[in-house]
Amino acid sequence: MFEKVILIDTNIWHFAYKMPKEEKYIQIHKLANKFLKDIFSQHTTQIGMSSYQIAEIMDVLRKAGIERDIRKKVLKDFDNTKFKIVEIQSGQVKIYLDKSIVSNIHIYDYLVAFPLKGLVSKIYSADDHFQHKDFKAIAEVINPLSPWILREGKRPTIQNEDS
């Protein structure tokens, strides 16, 4: 029996499975890998995902060059009771798009998180977009890769690092 449901953002999955290209980012990969292993070993914790996020994770792993057999195993693992998959309803997409327009945060983060509103107690993400009030209204947001900050299309940075 699961006591809690959490959301793990796609960027953590990406860094957990992908090998680092640069030495300075090894810590991110190690933190992400350890975090996922720790969550998988917690028998009272279920991982919530939107149906969209499954597709997003599979695409991110493909683009990262993760072998097909590994990707197939990850996809098969999502059928396990460890995962609670929530379908996105067509009417929700307009709501998420409106929120995306107002916040200027791409809709993909909304498609990952908002279908799980009322289900998850914590959101784990290293993406600073998730620090926005829209996401904090869903659940407590925790960066398990701190002090690293990740954002799609940008190089990882250390929190409060002057760029």
CATH superfamily: 5'-nuclease
Q: Provide the CATH top-level class.
A: Alpha Beta
Widest β-sheet, arrangement of strands: 3-2-1-4-5
Order of helices and strands: EHHEHHEHHEHEEE
Mean pLDDT: 94
How many angstroms separate the termini?
A: 46 Å
Counting DSSP H or I runs of 4 or more residues, the number of helices is 7
Radius of gyration: 15 Å
Q: Give the beta-strand count.
A: 7
Give the total of domains: 1
Q: Which ranges are low-confidence, i.e. pLDDT below 50, for 5 or more consecutive residues?
A: none
Strand content: 15-25%
Q: What is the percent of helical residues?
A: 40-55%
CATH architecture descriptor text: 3-Layer(aba) Sandwich
